[in-house]
């Protein structure tokens, strides 16, 4: 199962959602993200949230349209996006893509980045108009070249030991990367596939493109 979650972040940061649609995709809306899905012509199969960012008339319309809508109190110990993600993980989804989780308030952005820790290696992707973000734990990983996303950056979330990059414009060989380092920002793949490996730590990979 592939689950796509659309949160309620600014719609100007959303990619073209129809490009990610398919028969094997299960769409989930979070709060105002439900409206973004409907505007894109996609009917979510499930919705989560306190829906405090929409008015009562909009909420009543959603209750009539949606097959499953889970309404939570506004005062709770998790964000709406966190609740939706935990549900998706319980479904044992092979891949979870999170949209509408960037832009606007920085507390929401950093909170949503933290949610990536809840999945297995690379299982959860945070996607907006310019970026694809994943988390990776120690080991060897293969990355395929995407012409649309020219830049590949690696950000240490913990100290990284023995990072090796192969198939990149700027290779590395068993290099330790401390917190606060910008050494691995804006690298590029020079082959169809590359690899990155490290023996200890947690690394965030960001695949990016310039705004046109």
Strand content: 35-45%
Number of strands: 12
Counted by DSSP, the helix tally is 4
Low-confidence stretches: none
The N- and C-terminal alpha carbons lie at a distance of 33 Å
Helix content: 10-25%
Rg over C-alpha atoms, rounded to the nearest angstrom: 18 Å
Q: What is the N-to-C order of secondary-structure elements (H for helix, E for strand)?
A: EEHEHEHEHEEEEEEE
Biggest β-sheet: count, sense, barrel?
A: 12 strands, mixed
Which structural class should the secondary elements be placed in? alpha/beta
Structural features, described:
This protein is of the alpha/beta class. Helix content is about 20%, strand content about 35%. The chain has helices at about 35-40, 55-65, 80-90, 105-115; strands spanning about 1-5, 25-30, 45-50, 70, 95-100, 125, 130-145, 150-155, 160-165, 170-175, 185-190, 195-210. It is elongated, with a radius of gyration of 18 Å. The mean pLDDT is about 90.
Features:
212 residues; alpha/beta; 12-stranded mixed β-sheet; 4 helices; 12 strands; elongated
Helix-strand blueprint:
Blueprint: E1 2-6, E2 25-30, H1 33-39, E3 46-49, H2 56-65, E4 69-71, H3 80-90, E5 95-99, H4 106-115, E6 124-127, E7 131-144, E8 151-156, E9 160-166, E10 172-177, E11 187-188, E12 193-208
Parallel strand pairs: 1-2, 1-5, 2-3, 3-4, 5-6
Antiparallel strand pairs: 6-7, 7-12, 8-11, 8-12, 9-10, 9-12
């Amino acid at each position: 199962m592939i689950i796509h979650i659309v949160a309620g972040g600014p719609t100007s940061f959303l990619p073209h959602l129809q490009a990610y649609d398919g028969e094997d995709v299960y769409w989930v809306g979070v709060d105002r993200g439900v409206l973004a899905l409907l505007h894109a012509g996609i009917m979510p199969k499930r919705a989560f949230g306190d829906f405090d960012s929409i008015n009562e008339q909009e909420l009543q319309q959603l209750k009539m349209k949606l097959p499953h809508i889970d309404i939570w109190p506004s005062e709770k110990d998790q964000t709406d996006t966190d609740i939706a993600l935990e549900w998706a993980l319980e479904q044992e989804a092979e891949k979870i893509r999170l949209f509408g989780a960037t832009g606007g308030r920085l507390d929401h952005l950093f909170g949503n980045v933290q949610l990536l820790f809840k999945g297995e290696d690379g299982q959860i992707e945070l996607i907006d108009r310019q970026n694809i973000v994943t988390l990776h734990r120690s080991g060897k990983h293969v990355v395929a070249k995407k012409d649309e996303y020219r830049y590949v950056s690696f950000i240490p979330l913990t100290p990284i030991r023995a990072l090796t990059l192969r198939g990149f414009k700027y290779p590395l060989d068993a290099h330790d990367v401390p917190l606060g380092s910008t050494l691995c920002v804006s690298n590029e793949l020079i082959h169809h596939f590359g690899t990155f490996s490290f023996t200890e730590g947690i690394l965030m990979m960001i695949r990016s493109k310039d705004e046109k």
